[in-house]
Amino acid sequence: ADGRTLFTANVPASSVSHLDLVEKKFVRHVRVGPGAEGIAITPDGREVWAGSNEAGTITIIDVATGNVVETLRDLGMPYRITISPDGRWAMIPDPPNNRVHVADVTLRRVVGAITGIGSPRGVEIAPDNRTAYVTLGPENSVLVVDLVEQRVIAEHPVGTAPDGVGFG
Q1: What is the pLDDT of residue 168?
Q2: pTM above threshold 0.85
Q3: Cβ-contact 132, 122 below 8 angstroms
Q4: CB neighbours (10 Å) of residue 115?
Q5: CA angle 52-66-56, nearest 5°?
Q6: How crowded is the C-beta side of 32, counted as CA atoms within 13 Å?
């Protein structure tokens, strides 16, 4: 959030790169699961969550040390990750299994899932920390999800093959 640090998920290298934008230098690579693609940073900047599309895991990295502090397993294909503005929730789309996992960020564990929804792609959590928007690629729609109740409250048709989503 301070604009000083950048993290990238490196799909072929199965790693996350940490870059210092002020000093314009590379800080470190952290090995994560194969096919690392989805990535999110907690709002306080203390943790990076990186998904492995091939291993079905999320590796949680402590930013200060570069150490892996936890690995969440059995997530299918954690294609993307988003963390709520208050840092409480993470949502993890799993397209091949037609579900979005819901994780408690503080506990570092999955606490539920929204299932049977079609193939989720992008996900974004609104500033209210309760409402999430999930694109469904082949279904050409966007879901509105109540995170607390972990249920779909609306579905809206959109253009062909929606992927990423943002809230503004």
Answers
A1: 82
A2: yes
A3: no
A4: 12
A5: 10
A6: 41
